[in-house]
User: Which sequence fits this backbone?
């Protein structure tokens, strides 16, 4: 008799668990695929196909401070791959120690390949287009296209590597340099226990993480934070109430007031939060989201549950070996910190 009851309750808990997995999928949450070939299909772009030669070169350029005017700032300065793919600052700091003039924080580059658009206002269509921006932006790397092309072509190892990646007649121009960095960024994908769960491993999430997932779905968070990135599309901010730090910086979204929904992957590693970095803790960000986006009061307990779920999005980072960069030559432009 006891055995039967136990069996019965085990069955009940199994079917409940299975339905939570289904509920998550129905809510639009999508796993990073387990198989390498399925993943490659998702992250690749036929206009700039991923190859080992390109990603290796793109990695060097991602870490290359001499692309910047000062010779001090690389993509990795603000999108530090060792610290969650961002810089931990409320507003980014670039050339001449200047803060981002709109008080915008650096979003993570991990999993950015899954975003529908790039930048807080979605103004770049993909990673390749995006990469052209920061190198020239005065408060970021403050370079010119000529500086960048001259720098790269001044070092024979780069020239050799471009030929290997694109063919021996390939021209090294600004667009191709940005394309190569974008190619590397496409590989910055971080599968997490949440993916293992959605891919069918019931035990990949703890009980508490499952409870948090349920709260996340029930509260309506997944209406915007969905898809593979749990974000990456555009939406309004301040739907039911005004964001309490809306006036820090002058950022108001795109022409229609739409703002990029940030990914929630590796979110425990990318404080502070929101476009202007004014929310210090994940818990406060969750509660503020409930208030301004859903008109819902999220209790401390519910916020803690959601935070526990979000920890299951801490992903396994790809191994990125710090590249040794070629030595400068007489033709390499001088560093200029002015
Ligand atoms: C000085 C700091 C800084 C540097 C250097 C920098 N970025 Fe950024 N990055 C930012 C900021 C700030 C934003 C958001 C700006 C905006 O939305 O207008 C951003 C946005 C992005 C995004 C969009 C992500 C998203 O969620 O929409 C990507 C991708 C990115 N940067 C990659 C790069 C690459 C590649 C380089 C090097 C070529 C680079 N960044 C250099 C600060 C920096
Ligand atoms: C209507 C769409 C929408 C809903 C619903 C929504 N969010 Fe957001 N979320 C956004 C947008 C857009 C931002 C960016 C806000 C900004 O930077 O000004 C954001 C930002 C965040 C951030 C900060 C991320 C970062 O990197 O700075 C977290 C955390 C977050 N949301 C969690 C949640 C949780 C948890 C819920 C449910 C309680 C939720 N969101 C509901 C659209 C939404």
Assistant:
């Amino acid at each position: 008799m006891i055995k039967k009851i136990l069996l019965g309750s085990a069955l009940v808990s199994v079917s409940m668990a299975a339905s939570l997995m289904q509920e998550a999928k129905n809510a639009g949450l999508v796993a990073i695929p387990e198989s390498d070939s399925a993943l490659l299909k998702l992250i690749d772009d036929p206009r700039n196909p991923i190859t080992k030669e390109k990603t290796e070169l793109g990695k060097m350029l991602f870490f290359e401070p001499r692309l910047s005017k000062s010779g001090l700032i690389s993509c990795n300065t603000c999108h530090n791959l060792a610290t969650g793919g961002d810089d931990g600052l409320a507003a980014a700091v670039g050339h001449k120690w200047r803060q981002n003039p709109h008080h915008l924080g650096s979003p993570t580059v991990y999993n950015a390949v899954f975003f529908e658009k790039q930048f807080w206002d979605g103004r770049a269509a993909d990673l390749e287009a995006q990469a052209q921006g920061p190198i020239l932006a005065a408060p970021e790397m403050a370079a010119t296209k000529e500086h960048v092309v001259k720098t790269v072509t001044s070092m024979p190892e780069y020239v050799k590597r471009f030929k290997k990646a694109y063919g021996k007649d390939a021209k090294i121009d600004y667009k191709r340099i940005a394309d190569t960095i974008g190619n590397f960024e496409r590989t910055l994908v971080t599968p997490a226990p949440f993916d293992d769960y959605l891919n069918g491993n019931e035990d990949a999430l703890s009980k508490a993480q499952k409870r948090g997932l349920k709260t996340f779905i029930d509260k309506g968070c997944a209406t915007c934070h969905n898809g593979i990135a749990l974000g990456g599309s555009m939406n309004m901010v301040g739907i039911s109430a005004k964001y309490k730090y809306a006036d820090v910086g002058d950022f108001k979204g795109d022409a229609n007031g739409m703002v990029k929904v940030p990914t929630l992957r590796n979110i425990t590693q990318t404080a502070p939060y929101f476009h202007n970095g004014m929310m210090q803790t994940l818990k406060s960000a969750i509660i503020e989201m409930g208030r301004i986006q859903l008109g819902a009061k999220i209790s401390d307990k519910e916020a803690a549950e959601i935070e526990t779920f979000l920890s299951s999005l801490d992903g396994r980072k790809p191994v990125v070996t710090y590249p040794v960069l070629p030595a400068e030559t007489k033709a390499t432009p001088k560093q200029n910190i002015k």
Summary: The beta strands are 234-236, 258-260.
